[in-house]
Design a protein that fits this description.
This protein has helices at about 10, 25-30, 45-60, 75-85, 110-120, 120-130, 145-150, 170-185, 200-210, 215, 250-260; strands at about 15-20, 65-70, 95, 190-195, 225-230, 240-245. It has about 260 residues and is an alpha/beta fold. The protein has one domain (about 10-260): Rossmann fold, CATH 3.40.50.1240. The chain has a 6-stranded mixed β-sheet. Helix 4 (about 75-85) links the parallel strand 2 (about 65-70) and strand 3 (about 95).
Length: about 260
């Protein structure tokens, strides 16, 4: 893994962008599909945001002008914790529904191991990682259906665009206009942090790195590990690839954990 180029600002005018998956949520802890259900961070997730993400950013001497999140609390709370630890609570936060986690349809609320035992691991991994894997739409008898559909945080979702399920492909398309807005900020020289969800982080990485539909299926994002990108402000081009901040062994362990169905 290459080092952050500390002298890059002397060679060309550049700007850095940081992408962070939120800390462990209550549903992450319980190994459940979450999607658009608005759960809180677990106590460990709050600690991850503070002790893993914020500490890594402080060590790298990162600073920010604006932060983007989804409208879901696990995303917003992660940003609040990180910015507070960095003494940067003054940084404005822009919450955007287009950055919400992928909607897992009627899988929402179910334990991943339970679903794998019921439908088979191959089917579940296709729903989780396949580019066009589309879970069954959420139904009114799902215990989280009304909590999701009636949640006022989704009031900005345009009529006809409220999903009942999504594939990774659909999530990639939903995120694209939000990414265009964020990239404009970066290329204007604003230092941007994005605190979002696992699948949305994958969707952003597909746009940022130009990954193929096949390659993005094998990308897994650990909670609360900052991923840094650097842009040449003159050309608007990405310089190299993304760099994780933190202990390589920890990152490897947590990435493998995310990839597995779990117990």
């Amino acid at each position: 893994m290459r080092e952050l180029r500390k002298t890059s600002q002397f060679m060309m005018k550049t700007n850095r962008l940081v992408v962070i998956r939120h800390g462990e949520s209550e549903f992450n802890l319980e190994n459940k599909f979450c999607g658009w259900h608005d759960v809180s961070l677990s106590p460990n997730g709050a600690s991850e945001a503070c002790d893993i993400a914020a500490d890594a950013l402080i060590k790298a001497k990162m600073q920010f002008d604006v932060c983007y999140t989804s409208v879901l609390r696990r995303s917003r709370d992660t940003a609040d914790i990180i910015l507070a630890k960095m003494n940067s609570s003054y940084v404005p936060i822009k919450a955007d529904w287009r950055l919400c986690e992928r909607h897992y349809g009627n899988l929402t609320g179910y334990n991943k191991r339970f679903i794998a035992d019921r439908y088979g691991e191959e089917q579940v991994q296709y729903w989780r990682r396949g580019y066009d894997g589309l879970p069954p739409p959420i139904q009114p008898d799902n215990r989280y259906y009304y909590a999701i559909c009636n949640n006022p945080v989704f009031s900005d979702v345009p009529a006809g665009q409220f999903p009942l399920t999504e594939s990774l492909h659909m999530c990639v398309e939903r995120v694209k206009p939000a990414w265009d807005d964020i990239l404009d900020e970066v290329l204007k020289g604003n230092r941007v942090m994005i605190c979002i969800h696992g699948t949305v982080a994958r969707a952003l990485i597909k746009h940022i790195e130009g990954l193929s539909d096949e390659d993005i299926q094998h990308v897994n994002i650990p909670n609360s590990v900052p991923r840094v990108y650097e842009y040449d402000l003159k050309t608007g081009k990405l310089i190299g690839g993304g760099i994780y901040l933190g202990d390589p062994e920890y990152i490897k362990k947590m990435t493998a954990q995310v990839a597995s169905i779990g117990k």
